[in-house]
């Protein structure tokens, strides 16, 4: 091999080596940025049975304010079947029923058809509660829910405060007092009354919209507690739902049943930003993990909605198409 050819090959190898180092450094920097803690507190409020139609047609000044001051999508999607247990599990587990195995409201930890792909401490698929607990051992974690069956979907050992009030009003009041008193790292609030209105009176009925307006009042109460606790400037609030509905039920495959609102508000969130990209139920837990700078379990399939955060953009050739 001639000298000049050998020198050229050496130069090429050096260039490849430099580019490799730059590439590895870039990946490392990106990973470091993804694991940067952006907020001190996260509050997720889930409204059972809340549809985008409900927010469109009811009077909701508190929801409207958070949408204006934050990022949102009215075209997020739950998973099939559009049952409560399946979608609440998906919301907190960062994965769908194919992974976590919760395929119906009849699911029990020791009585189910499809086993989870992986199991955590209490023989269930790992939830965001356990992820926070393990990676932030000093974190205060609270769950307040007025649908009793929600309590079987997460690891009891992972939370510090676990309470099941009897009504939505009591749930909001309890959650507000907890937030003011403990200033928790992660709070999850479940409100069930909208779903009751949907089943009794029908989605799209006047009574249904009234229940959404009650939810708006309860949201205002919880947001006021965040303010009183001095947490507003360092908190991410996420609002969403498990499913929508059709006539007096849900569980089917219509757009009205599977489409849900997704709203983000707080530190580092873009203002008055309509998320143009696809948003899924399992992205909720991933976004919580992102905001708290935590590693996501490999078994999760959810992705953090980084496009909603200031300083982040994504290259997406497939924006949401508005359905008529």
Which SSEs are present, and which pair or pack?
Blueprint: H1 3-34, E1 41-47, H2 52-57, H3 61-69, E2 71-77, H4 84-93, H5 97-100, H6 128-135, E3 141-145, E4 161-163, H7 168-182, E5 186-191, H8 193-201, H9 206-228, E6 235-240, H10 255-258, E7 259-266, E8 273-274, H11 283-291
Helix pairs in contact: 7-9, 8-9
Walk me through what this model shows:
Helix content is 40%, strand content 14%. It has 324 residues and is of the alpha/beta class. The chain has one domain: Alkaline Phosphatase, subunit A (3-Layer(aba) Sandwich), CATH 3.40.720. It has an eight-stranded mixed sheet with strand order 4-3-5-1-6-7-2-8, with helices on both faces. Helix 7 packs parallel to helix 9 and helix 8 packs antiparallel against helix 9. About 2% of the residues have low confidence.
| Discrete helix count | 11
Structural class: alpha/beta
Termini separation: 68 Å
CATH C-level label? Alpha Beta
Mean pLDDT: 92
Rg, nearest Å: 22 Å
Shape: globular
Strand order, main sheet: write it out: 4-3-5-1-6-7-2-8
Q: Provide the low-confidence segments as ranges.
A: 23-27
Number of strands: 8
CATH superfamily: Alkaline Phosphatase, subunit A
The largest sheet, given as strand count, sense and whether it forms a barrel, is: 8 strands, mixed
Which architecture would the CATH scheme give at its second level? Answer: 3-Layer(aba) Sandwich
Pfam families: Phosphodiest (PF01663)
Protein name: Type I phosphodiesterase / nucleotide pyrophosphatase
InterPro entries: Alkaline_phosphatase_core_sf, Phosphodiest/P_Trfase
Organism: Kriegella aquimaris
């Amino acid at each position: 091999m001639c000298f000049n050819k050998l020198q050229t090959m050496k130069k090429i190898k050096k260039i490849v080596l430099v580019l490799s180092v730059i590439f590895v450094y870039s990946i490392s920097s990106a990973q470091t940025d993804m694991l940067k803690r952006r907020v001190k507190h996260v509050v997720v409020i889930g409204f059972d049975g809340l549809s985008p139609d409900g927010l469109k047609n009811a009077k909701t000044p508190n929801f409207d304010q958070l949408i204006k001051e934050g990022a949102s999508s009215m075209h997020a999607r739950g998973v099939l079947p559009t049952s409560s247990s399946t979608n609440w599990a998906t919301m907190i587990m960062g994965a769908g029923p194919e992974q976590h195995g919760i395929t119906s409201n009849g699911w029990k930890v020791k009585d189910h058809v499809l086993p989870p792909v992986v199991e955590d401490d209490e023989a269930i698929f790992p939830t965001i509660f356990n992820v926070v607990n393990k990676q932030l051992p000093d974190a205060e974690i609270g769950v307040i829910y007025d649908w009793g069956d929600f309590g079987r979907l997460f690891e009891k050992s992972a939370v510090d405060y676990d309470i099941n009030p009897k009504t939505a009003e009591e749930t909001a009041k309890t959650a507000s007092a907890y937030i003011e008193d403990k200033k928790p790292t992660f709070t999850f609030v479940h409100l069930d009354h909208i779903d009751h209105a949907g089943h009794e009176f029908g989605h799209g009925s006047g009574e249904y919209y009234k229940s959404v307006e009650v939810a708006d009042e309860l949201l205002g109460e919880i947001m006021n507690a965040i303010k009183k606790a001095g947490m507003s400037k360092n908190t991410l609030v996420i609002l969403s739902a498990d499913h929508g509905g059709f006539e007096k039920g849900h569980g089917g495959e219509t757009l009205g049943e599977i489409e849900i609102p997704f709203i983000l508000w707080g530190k580092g969130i873009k203002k008055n930003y309509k998320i143009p990209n696809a948003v899924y139920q399992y992205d909720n837990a991933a976004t919580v993990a992102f905001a708290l700078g935590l590693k996501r379990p490999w078994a999760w399939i959810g992705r953090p909605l980084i496009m909603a955060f200031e300083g982040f953009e994504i290259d997406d050739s497939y924006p949401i198409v508005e359905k008529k």
